[in-house]
Amino acid sequence: MDPAPPESFQTGRRNEREERSPVRGRAMDLKKRRKILEKKKTIHDLIKKASSIVDPLSPFDSFRRYQSNDLSVYLESCRGDRLSSSVKQYIQKLLKTNMEGFYGSDWRIQAKVKRKEMSSVDAHYIFVLELRYSKSYETSARRTCMERCNQIAGFVHYRFTVEEEVPVLYVYEIQLESRVQGKGLGDYLMQLIERIASKNRMSAIVLTVLTSNALAMSFYMSKLGYRISSISPSEANLPTLSVKYEILCKTFDSEAKSVLENDEEPTND
Length: 269
Description:
Helix content: 40-55%
Keywords: Acyltransferase, Cytoplasm, Nucleus, Transferase
Order of helices and strands: HEEHHEHHEEHEHEHEH
Oligomer: single chain
Number of helices: 9
Strand content: 15-25%
CATH superfamily: Gcn5-related N-acetyltransferase (GNAT)
Shape: globular
Strand order of the largest sheet: 1-2-3-4-5-6-8-7
Distance between the termini: 76 Å
CATH class: Alpha Beta
Pfam family, one: Acetyltransf_1
Subcellular location: Cytoplasm; Nucleus
Domain N-acetyltransferase: 111-250
Number of strands: 8
């Protein structure tokens, strides 16, 4: 057996290891930081690519037409920065009709916020157009027909964005005229939204619902399977807000699920 090395030699080797440890630690930190930056860039590129698509409905032509009993509608895409003044007025009017009662005295403030959000370059829209005649519409210019040939009966406003470092499709609004409600159209539109999110590699769909809107809460949670997100005010221990709302989500991968979903089972009361 070889004799043990002198104490001075043992101490020298130990000191050498101790000197190299900070270097190794810094290298690991740099590697970890590089990985985080690469992930952020990947997500940024995903959002940028999805947001730049002129017509997110183009891969889903079969979804453009919806017919149910006496209802026949056509779906059309648009961007917030391309809305005409008449369409902007329509959006504001429908929002007021459908939402003023839920917001109460806060509506005036909320209306200003929604008016600003409406025209953003990041805003994507799906317009619901009631068909007055089908063949003429389908062979004519969509841009002019959206206002001149058909009556708008509702819209979806959504964006591609990031929540908690997760790429998501965020539904800002889904608003329908009362005459087309209760005919399966809302369910149909949310199915389409899920397809758009999946096509553009979003990891989740996120939306906000006022707790006072019991029908909407039931629609999303009981019928469509959305869950209260861990980033919702009720889960994040935020101070009580003047207008109470919940942030709901539906996740498509394990990472999004771990970040955005509440671990507790949802209740359907």
